[in-house]
Amino acid sequence: MQSSDNQPIQNVFSLTGKLALITGGGTGIGFDIARCMVQAGATVVITGRREEPLREAIEKLGETAHYFVNDVSELSALDALVEQIETTLAPIDILVNNAGINLKKPALEVTDEEFSRIIQTNLNAVFALTRACARRMVPRRSGSILMISSMAAYYGIDRVVAYAASKSGVEGMVKVLASEFSPHNVRVNAIAPGFIETEMSKKAMGGDPDRRDRAMRRTPMGHFGKPDDIGHAAVFLSSDAARYITGASLPVDGGNSIGF
Ligand code: NDP
């Protein structure tokens, strides 16, 4: 099977020769995005605040994986991180803004400090790192930027006010950046995951079987997603197979977004 420009179809989905930076790539969804991208041929750089999970992840990912200990919420260090990666490895072709934190609390109990902490990691850092990468991608006229958003950006899910605000901000950012960067051949997209089995979603459910049952009833496919469901979508959106897709937010949610 060939694509329109006579490439075998598997080549269109290949990330061979590409360098991908995946924040929060040591665990959960980020790890599976890195794993799928390595399988698609990419060299990957994963980041996180804790070294141990990153080291363990690298062992599983193999020799085309590298890590940098980095806290994305320290915005002033992000340009230096990008510079260091590009100097020691190669130009970054793919950025995946995956690192994120949640806070499950009734809105009236959320403090200013807590609200700001979520916004700093999930929104301010996404902009700062995207800008650092895009400043280099735009002159090269090549790049793909992917945000891991959430269906919380679209639906009123109780007790995640700061998280929902941060992810809605990311969704808005995608459209503006996609518009500004399109003439420079840099694409910007989002994936909006539904309920995916990770440490974050386990914590969000708080071990409460009722909450789990409610979430399951709101998922038409009748089961939660796996981190590699996001990994597969991330490979697609970062590859040439998606070369005409920008400014999009792809729900990967077992049908949550169909509505109720
Ligand atoms: P996890 O908590 O399993 O992983 C989050 C990762 O982000 C960890 O590796 C963590 O590493 C890293 N991280 C957190 N804060 C920072 C920081 N300040 N700087 C650098 N790295 C950081 O979460 P998930 O895998 O579930 O979530 C990944 C993304 O997917 C998030 O953006 C989340 O909002 C989104 N998402 C998840 C859903 C789900 O159901 N699981 C649903 C919808 C969206 P460390 O602690 O070492 O820094």
Automatic annotation (TrEMBL):
Highest taxon listed in the record's lineage: Bacteria
Residues forming coiled coils: none
Entries under Pfam families matching the protein: adh_short_C2 (PF13561)
Keywords noted in UniProt: Oxidoreductase
The keyword Cell wall biogenesis/degradation belongs to this UniProt entry's keyword annotation: no
Principal EC category: oxidoreductase
Gene3D superfamilies (UniProt xref): NAD(P)-binding Rossmann-like Domain
NCBIfam families (UniProt xref): PRK07231.1, PRK12826.1-2
Protein name in UniProt: Glucose 1-dehydrogenase
Organism of origin: Larkinella knui
Lineage: Bacteria, Pseudomonadati, Bacteroidota, Cytophagia, Cytophagales
